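User:
I would dearly like some help making sense of a protein record. Take your time, and here it is.
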Amino acid sequence: MDYIEIFREEFKTSLLNNDRIGIFDIYRKVKNHPIDFDFIEDIMVPAAEEIGEYWDKGEVSLSQLYMSGRICEELVISIFPDQHLLHRGTMNTAIVNFCDHHPLGKKIVCSTFKVNGIPLLDYGHGIDQETLIEKLKRDRPKFLVISVLMLPSALKIKKLKERLLKEGMDTKILVGGAPFRFDKDLWKQVGADAMGITPMDTLNIIKEWGGSCNE
């Protein structure tokens, strides 16, 4: 029996039904299960991506998409309550759904960073290249995390990277999302500097690069 798939389906159903009690019950069941699961990587992220795909097909409402993101954020913060830190200063890492309107994955990454003491400049979702370039010129972050669900959005990162180099900007790009997990070499093809498979993986790479708040 595939327990991960069972828990994932239960979690996804509870998200779509806005069932907070059910969601936290599922988390406790996974945490106490004899088989070792990574709840965020094995359950939350895949379920969130499926909901994003449902919304793209018109099978779920915008309110369901929004509330799913809020609930995931609450759950991540509750999982790591003792790690939450308050930072002051200028943030040097930004995150965006580049040419992509599926924010759930980004919300989970933002929450993971937040509870580990590294807040992000959140540029939102559905941001096109010109708008993103303007924001990067204004804020000058050292690192940019790009989260996408759809392959066409992922492929547009190559032109973004070329434009950044043309503008003389040395912003390092870390990518993540379903297309990059499906094709492990795609991040290289689009000119990214690294790929984060999971939210914690993304966090650790940014830490290695020196991501933090500039005091």
Observations:
- The two ends are 51 Å apart (CA to CA).
- Strands lie at 90-91, 93-98, 121-127, 143-147, 172-176, 194-195, 213-214.
